[in-house]
Structures are given as structure tokens and as C-alpha cells.
Amino acid sequence: MKVLSIALNTFRENLRDKLLYNLLIFALLMIGSSLILMRLTLGEFHRLILDIGLGSINFFGVLIAIFVGIGLVSKEIEKKTIYTIVSKPVARFQFLLGKYLGLSLTLVINTAVMAAGLLAVLSLQDVPVHAVLFKALGMIVLEFMVITAVALLFSTFSSATLSAIFTLAIYVIGHLTPDLKAFGQKMEGGGRTVLEGMYYILPNLDRFNLKGHVTHQLDVPAGDLLLIAAYGLAYTTFLLMLASLIFQRRDFR
Amino acid sequence: MDTLAGVILQVDHLRKIFRVGFWGRRVTAVDGLSFEVQRGEVFGFLGPNGAGKTTTIKMLMGLIYPSGGTATLFGRPVGDPAAKAKVGFLPESPYFYDYLTGREFLRFYGHLFGLLGSVLEKRIDELLELVGMTHARDLQLRKFSKGMLQRVGIAQALINDPELVILDEPMSGLDPIGRKEVRDLILRLKESGKTVMFSSHILHDAELLCDRVAMIMKGRLVACGHVSELVAGNTTHEVEVVIDRLLPEALERIKPLAEKIVLQGERVMVVLTSQQDVDQALDVIRSSKAKLVSLTPHKASLEDLFIREAKGTQPVVEARV
Fold first, then answer.
1. Predicted ipTM of the assembly
2. Taking phi first (over 0 means left), then psi (-120 to 50 degrees means alpha), and beta for anything else, what does residue A241 get?
3. Contact, A93 vs A172, CB < 8 A?
4. Which of A38, A251, B205, B264 could be disulfide-bonded to B64 (CB atoms 3.0-4.6 Å)?
5. Contacts of residue A12 in chain B, CB cutoff 8 Å?
6. In the predicted structure, residue A114 carries a pLDDT above the cut 60
7. Which residues pair with B9 in a beta bridge?
8. What is the DSSP letter of A128?
């Protein structure tokens, strides 16, 4: 109940934030622009629309996850609004979980709006829609949830700016982890251990990327989806627990 | 347990050491503080800026962790949810969710206490009425003035009908009318049987409102007790006597009695510090046929005590309660 109230309050805060609408409008414009780009391209129209569409949804969603996510906790501490929450009979982990779920809800609805825009463009161009598109959208949301948890973790112990930099770094490296492993295998001794360690510790965000499957209309078996989903949820849970541990010990000065 | 001797807040050798700067220099913000708050009283927590008042209150509310010592609320360690449920808290210069309206704001805090539905809505109406904010219930907090924020902040602190209300600097930044309103509100809370603890660096407010006060300086307790005891017991009354046509030999007789003498032409102002000295000085004046212009007793105030403590001229005082 308390978690839910905090989540809904966070959701309401997001809805009244202008940043969200700006990003949303940009995303829809990007998706719409594929109609114009199409005229400049030879063939492969369908792939272009799907590629730009899913790419935009992913990019703008990640921006929201990072830039709203880093403020979830640090803004509450800076603005001292947290004083009135933690002094109530609310455990600190309940506060964190509420903030996290609130932003997750925002991201789900946001993705739904952007996906509706993409579907509108697709139907306008008579592009056939396959089930794998929805699976890909689901995985995109899962990626947002992992990134939000990363942003939340950093914002429990560092400033908003540093958190943004750290989270962006994790996002970029997270998409390159297979390269980390490949590099590691070419090295010897210490370097290899470090790179392989990073490969296992950092989130493997490329796992959530099913864009290739969508554009080539390749279906993803349910078993694989389940594994990816389990990985995403386990990783998120781990991050949230770590964030709670840090947050629990913190002094709000 | 919590009704024992009527003590609802007990602070025992509380200590907080902060680490500041790059090298983690240790700064003691609160240094072995002990005091208690009794049921039903208005307790003033006084001290100059930076004395450690807010740090202490934050420790009581579970916002920061003590480095040493203990504090109990209703017989439970601070931070215990069951104790928090009986406390209302208004932080210093509060910042609230400015995208919420007055009503949404109070509803959110009600939910955190598990209040729901018509019970909560009724409570919100009562509170908005109590703090005189009914007109602003559908206005977003970003449009509130500072006084309005303070009032809705107090409403927020009362949403759970708490037994103990802790207000951190409730009167700072308010105009005289706003301060009077907050004072009236505190007295109304006391009348309705609540215990109020508030911090302030404005002593006049404390003198008007408090049953007992604790005064801290540099994180240490310098005085604690009833306002009347602290004022009467630890500062001597001063009497200012103004005399005309005082003969030089009479002046010589008064000099050893006086704390201070100011000569202004024919007029002499003498400051005396004890009743005995005043009697003797009056005898001299009568016998020398000088003219007594005025005799003004200066009641010692908390402010005098405060300044005296700040200068470090007075040892640690603890009035027996």
C-alpha cells in the first residue's frame, strides 16, 4: 500500500514533468520521419520503418530512464522532500521500491504511446505486423527497467550529474559486453581476468535487442524469451537490493 | 511502557560526528546531549544557528544515524515504525512536492499512514480548516507563499493525529502575522492534549509558548528546565535607577553598590543588581534629598541567558524539574 502510494505519486510527478512530453514528441517525430526518409531510399522500406521506429523507441526510452531515473532519489534528497517521507512509518526500501515502480509505470505507458505511433505508421504503409514486434517491444521495456535500476543505484550514493555519466557508461558498455569477452580471450593473465569479470558483472544489454529479428521477421522461441526475461528480472532485483543496502545506511544531511 | 512517568521522548548522551571534506575531517555536531520531553507539554529546543538543533531532530526522526548514545520515542528506539506512527514532523524550511495540490498532498501523506477513503477525506477537510487553508485545497503547491507552505506543512504533520508533534524552526521566515498564527496553532495543539516540541533560535517565541526549554550551544546542552526557573534562577534582576540632583558625597556612597553608573549633567543613572543594594541606594537618595526620577526593574529574559551562555561566562546549568 505504502509502496503503491509512493509509486503513484512518482508517476504523477513524471506526468507533470515537461521533459517527458518533449522527449515523447521527439520520439513520435522520429518515427514519423521514417515516412519521409523512405522516399530517399531504394527498396527495403519496411525494414527502414521498423529499424528507425524501434531504434527511436529504444533511444528515447533510455533517455527518459536515465534522466528521470537519476533524479528519482537525488532530487528528493536535494529538495529535502525525503524528510517528510522517511520520518513517516515507511521503511527506506519501500521508498526506493515505490520510486522505482513509479518510473517503470511511466516507461511502460510511454513505450505504449510510442509503439502506437509506430503501429500507425506501419499500417499507413501497409507493412505486415508480426508477433515478434511485440516481443521486441517487451524486451525493450525490460531493458528500460534494468537501466532505471542502474540509475537508481547510482543516485543513492552520488550526485545527479555523476549518476547520469555512470549510467550512460553502463548503458554503452552493456551493449558491448560480447566484445569485452572477445578482447579478454586474446589477453593473458590479469587483463583477461578483469575483462572477463566485467563481462559477467555488467548487464548484457544486447540480449534485450531483438531488432534484427523484427526486421528479418525471425521469430524468437518462447524458451529464449523466458530466459532473457528471467535474466532481466534477476539483474534488476540484484541492483535494487544493492541500492536498498546503500540507501539504508545513508544519512540525509 | 510509554506512560512511565509521562516521559515520551528520552534522549541520552546522543552524539553525532560528521565527516566533512575530502580528508574526512571529523566534526562533532551533537556532543553528548541528554534531555527528555514529558507528555502534554510544549518543549522548546533552543540554540543559535548551527548549534545542532536540526541534527538532533533528524536523529530523532531516523533521517540520520547517531554516532553514539540513545534516543527513545514512546519507549521504543527512534526509527521504529510503531513510534513513528505516533509522531508528526515538520522539517526546517520545508520543500514539498510542488506539482501536487493541497488536497493531493495531504492525501499522499495520509496513505503513508495507511489512512484511506472517507476517513482520510474527512481528516483532510478538518486539517485544511484548522490551518486556514481550505481556499487553497485545489491549488498546486508551487503557487503557495512561504506562509501557506508552512501551514500546509503543519497540516501534513498532523495527518495521523499524532501524540507528539516535532516542528523544526516552524516560525522562521514568516512575517509577524504568520508567526502569531503558528504560535496560536501550537497552543491549540497543546489544548487538545498533544505534546509539542519545536526548535527555534527566536527566544521571544519560546518564552511565550514553552513549558520547558532545552538550550544547546555547539552541540552541548547548556540549560534545561522550566522557563521561569531558568530565567529567575540563573540571571539576576537588574534595577535601573535614575536620580536628579545627587550630591557628590551621596554619589560616593552609592558607587560601591552600583554595577554601572552613567553621569549625564545633573542626572545620574545607576544600575543595581540586588534587592539589598536597591534598598540601600534608596536610603541614600532620601537622606541626601536628591530627586528620584525613575526606578525600572529589568526582568531577565531568556535572551539574557542566551547571550550569557554564548559568551561562555556561565557554567553549565541544569534546573531541577
1. 0.82
2. alpha
3. no
4. A251
5. 99-100, 104
6. yes
7. B37, B73
8. P
A129 pLDDT exceeds 70? yes
Facing residue for A252 by CB, picked from B63, B95, B96: B63
- The DSSP bridge partners found for residue B14 are B33
Per-residue cell: B188: 491549540
Q: Give domain B236-298's CATH number out of 3.30.70.1150, 3.40.50.300, 3.20.20.70, 3.40.50.2000.
A: 3.30.70.1150
Shortest Cα distance from B68 to chain A (angstroms)?
Answer: 14
Torsions phi, psi for B296 (to 5 deg): -120, 115
Give the one of B61, B93, B99 whose C-beta lies nearest to A13's C-beta.
B99
Q: Are strands B68-73 and B25-38 parallel, antiparallel or unpaired?
A: unpaired
Which positions 81-100 of A are in contact with B (Cβ < 8 Å)?
81-91
CATH class held by domain B4-86+162-233:
alpha beta
Q: Are B128 and B102 in contact (CB under 8 A)?
A: yes
pLDDT tens digits, one per residue of B213-238: 998 988 899 888 888 777 765 455 67
Tell me the percentage of chain A whose pLDDT exceeds 90. Answer: 43
pTM to 2 decimal places: 0.83
Predicted local confidence at residue B5, as pLDDT: 57
- For residues A90 and A2, is the Cβ–Cβ distance under 8 A? yes
Q: Report the pLDDT averaged over residues A103-108.
A: 94
| Domain limits, chain B | 4-86+162-233, 236-298
